[in-house]
UniProtKB/TrEMBL annotation:
Transmembrane intervals: 172-191, 225-246
PROSITE patterns: CYTC
The name this protein goes by in its record: C-type cytochrome
Species assigned in the record: Antarcticibacterium arcticum
Pfam families: Cytochrom_C (PF00034)
Domain Cytochrome c: 54-146
InterPro entries listed in its UniProt record: Cyt_c-like_dom (IPR009056), Cyt_c-like_dom_sf (IPR036909), Multihaem_cyt_sf (IPR036280)
KW Thylakoid (keyword) present: no
First and last residue of the signal peptide: 1-30
This protein's UniProt keywords: Heme, Iron, Membrane, Metal-binding, Signal, Transmembrane, Transmembrane helix
Gene Ontology MF terms: electron transfer activity; heme binding; metal ion binding
Length: 447
């Protein structure tokens, strides 16, 4: 037997690949993670310059219910910012001012008169119901230092980098798996090559594939029955594909454009539970739902110049939301520092999402006000959408199916009650659908 010399031993390659894999593993698993105790925590220590004894948590509740309408902790509103106010004013003076500011102004107090004139002589409502302890709790809350966003951002980045893997990046794990798979393929190739050399050296004849006498495609072409069946199948598949393609023309289900100002329906309609018709008020009385005027936005955002820390998510940070509010201020010409409009406005070019063909008529008031149809029926779970998108296909078949399945609301409407009674006898049903009321007539939507 002829002795074969192996230049590339499969065992050596396997040992080498395992060694490389084990050398990478400690480096990956040993990546630093954020200690559990390093998350930013809310501090309630008093600001430098004055010590206020009080319950900051109770003061926060009082501040949100009594003070937040006119004051912010940071930034001007109807009144001045209140963070660190105890470092600027005496606590006893603040108690007198909060309980009855007008009495303090009428007494001729210099500080009270100066503040009154600085803020356009807007009178602050008195709060005689607040005790000294209540006021101390509010002042304790306003004395809490502002949380540092840098620490929170660093923690968020670290958490995003090690999400679900204990600090190990998923890209690194996928890279290691790809490397191991490549090593296995190389090992299999070398083993196959070595076995072939060993068989040749041992005099073993390797099986040789016999060439076909005739290529398979020539045999297929000579069989007329197979050609005919294949041609029919191809024509049917092509026709079905063309039909499906053309039926999707003009259907924009799932369309999610990027708007010039990021508006989160999840925050407004979901978290804050703002009624859809508060902003889209014309849906009650008009054919269209209308684009809300920016003045509607400013009804709230005159006093809301930034979002709460709890609003931020892994995808959208607090800084991102605050910048979008600043875009709104730029569009309407609002100066948050001076609490006044500059008169310099910019148009906001909103991108339309839901768009019916011109030959199809749809009336929002008929469905929303008369029919009592919820907005989510057509627009989907709007209260869960961070970015608004088209939820329904808005096709003719989709509308027709809704008319066939939806019962009309006849209660309290004498006109509908009379027709309902007559048609109920005609169709032999207790409740009429929109289709049975004539909702499938062509002229209802096309005229």
């Amino acid at each position: 037997m002829k002795k074969v010399k192996f230049r590339h031993s499969a065992t050596q390659v396997l040992v080498l690949s395992i060694s490389i894999f084990l050398s990478f593993t400690p480096l990956v698993l040993g990546q630093d993670t954020i200690p559990a105790g390093d998350e930013p925590q809310e501090e309630v220590a008093a600001a430098a310059g004055a010590e206020v004894s009080g319950d900051a948590a109770a003061g926060k509740n009082l501040f949100n219910s009594l003070c937040a309408a006119c004051h912010k902790l940071d930034g001007n509103s109807i009144g001045p910012p209140l963070r660190g106010v105890t470092a600027k004013r005496d606590v006893e003076w603040l108690q007198k001012w909060i309980k009855n500011s007008q009495a303090l102004i009428n007494s001729g107090d210099a500080q009270a008169v100066a503040i009154y004139n600085e803020y356009n002589q807007v009178a602050m409502p008195p709060f005689p119901q607040l005790s000294d302890i209540d006021i101390e709790n509010i002042l304790a809350y306003t004395s809490a230092p502002k949380a540092e966003p840098a620490a929170a951002q660093a923690g968020g980045d670290a958490a995003a980098g090690g999400q679900g893997t204990g600090g190990v990046s998923s890209d690194i794990i996928l890279g290691i798996l790809a490397f191991v798979l490549l090593m296995l393929l190389i090992i299999l190739f070398l083993v196959n090559k070595t076995l072939r050399r060993f068989a040749t050296a041992s005099g073993v004849e390797l099986p040789v594939r016999e060439k076909r006498a005739k290529p398979i495609w020539k045999s297929f072409l000579e069989n007329q029955f197979l050609v005919l069946v294949s041609a029919i199948i191809l024509l049917l598949v092509a026709g079905y594909g063309m039909y499906g393609y053309f039926m999707q023309v003009g259907i924009d289900q799932g369309y999610k454009p990027v708007q010039p100002i990021h508006f989160s329906h999840k925050i407004h309609a979901g978290d804050n539970q703002i009624d859809c018709k508060f902003c889209h008020s014309s849906a009650r009385v008009s054919k269209t739902s209308g684009i809300p005027s920016l003045n509607v936005c400013m009804n709230c955002h005159k006093s809301i110049g930034e979002v709460a820390e709890a609003t931020a998510t892994d995808e959208y940070s607090k800084e991102f939301y605050d910048k979008e509010i600043q875009k709104l201020y730029t569009a309407v010409g609002w100066n948050p520092e001076e609490q006044a409009y500059s008169g310099e406005t910019e148009p906001v070019k909103w991108v339309r999402i839901h768009n019916l063909p011109d030959f199809a008529y749809f009336n929002h008031s008929q469905h929303v006000e008369v029919g009592g149809i919820a907005c989510q029926t057509c627009h989907g779970p709007v209260e869960e959408m961070e970015i608004m998108y088209q939820n329904a296909p808005l096709t003719m078949g989709w509308c027709v199916n809704c008319h066939r399945e939806t019962n009309i609301m006849a209660e309290g409407n004498e006109y509908y009650e009379k027709i309902h009674e007559e048609l109920s006898q005609k169709y032999g049903v207790e409740e009429l659908t929109v289709a049975q009321m004539g909702g499938l007539e062509c002229a209802k939507c096309h005229y």
